[in-house]
From TrEMBL:
PANTHER family: HYDROLASE YHCX, NITRILASE-RELATED
UniProt keyword terms in alphabetical order: Hydrolase
InterPro entries noted in UniProt: C-N_Hydrolase, C-N_Hydrolase_sf, UPF0012_CS
Family the entry assigns: Belongs to the carbon-nitrogen hydrolase superfamily. NIT1/NIT2 family.
Keyword match Ribosomal protein: no
Name recorded for this polypeptide: Carbon-nitrogen hydrolase family protein
Domain of life where this protein originates: Bacteria
Gene3D superfamilies: Carbon-nitrogen hydrolase
GO molecular function: hydrolase activity
Length: 285
């Protein structure tokens, strides 16, 4: 089974209305549809662009204001998923639940369903500057092209949570990310490669590019999309199926062949998933 995926290197720029945000989002989705894409991944925190709209006095909105756009955001992506008959992983959007803020990945199904996964591991900046709360559980999600998980940025740096996702049957990890410099970018990128090797899975990664001069902690972005594979003979030697140009506004598209994953798990040069020493360390199968 194959699935065609597109990852958006989303260009953050100051906007004046929700309609501008909606037009930019649909531009990427329409472009991906021209390639026959079935899954589109947007980056983490791409909806912070809405904070640049500002208030009546011209001041940028705060992270506390962002959940006020949740209904509009969800209605937009529900309609776009149906219109283009795609699964849209709408990056992450900050929602408010029981008085707490959660950085939450959303997947919009073509039939109108919405799957949500709150970010599980929260960075120090998210805690101290934006008072984010951590998600308290991992889910995997069935689609007509297989089972996937959504793990956001910092999450991919923790091998245990990805191991859990694979144990629950996920073959593809969609990883929306947002990093402001090369150090953060390469932490996420290198650990995405490690998770693909350890679990013999695909990792689809993307990040924000551009800048929001009026929005705190979103003034700088360093991003690149990539489809990352295990390092074995059926796949490219560097474990990169496709990747974008760093910090460019663009879409990256590739086909993920799930049968190749099943093949290398059974008779690859290495069989890392099968060879786990569960007699020595905890596992989640």
């Amino acid at each position: 089974m194959k699935l065609r995926v597109s990852a958006v290197q989303y260009q953050l720029q100051t906007i004046r209305s929700f309609e501008e945000f909606a037009a930019q989002a649909e531009h990427y989705i329409r472009t991906a549809s021209e390639f026959g894409t079935e899954f589109v991944l947007f980056p983490e925190f791409f909806t912070t662009q809405l904070m640049s709209i500002g208030d009546a006095q011209g001041n940028a909105l705060t992270i506390e204001d962002l959940p006020e756009f949740t209904e509009q955001y969800e209605q937009l992506f529900v309609s776009l998923a149906a219109k283009y008959n795609m699964h849209l992983i709408g990056g992450t959007h900050v929602i408010r639940k029981e008085g707490k803020l959660y950085n939450t990945a959303h997947m919009f199904y073509p039939d109108g369903r919405i799957a949500r996964q709150a970010k599980i591991h929260i960075t120090p900046t998210e805690v101290t500057e934006w008072n984010m709360a951590a998600g308290d559980g991992l889910e995997v999600f069935d689609t007509d092209k297989g089972r996937i998980a959504m793990l956001t940025c910092y999450d991919i740096e923790f091998p245990e949570i990805v191991r859990m996702a694979k144990a629950k049957g996920a073959d593809v990890i969609f990883c929306p990310s947002c990093t402001d410099d090369r150090h953060g970018f390469y932490r996420v990128r290198y650990t995405s490669h490690a998770r693909a090797v350890e679990n013999q899975i695909y990792v689809v990664l993307t990040g924000t590019v551009g800048h929001l001069p009026t929005v705190d902690f979103m003034r700088a972005n360093y991003g690149q999309a990539a489809m990352i594979t295990p390092n074995d003979v059926p796949f490219p030697p560097r474990g990169i199926l496709a990747e974008g140009e760093i910090n460019n506004d663009m879409i990256v598209t590739a086909d993920l062949d799930l049968d190749l994953l099943y093949e290398v798990r059974e008779r690859g040069s290495v069989t890392t998933w099968r060879d786990r020493r569960t007699d020595l360390y905890t596992d989640w199968e």
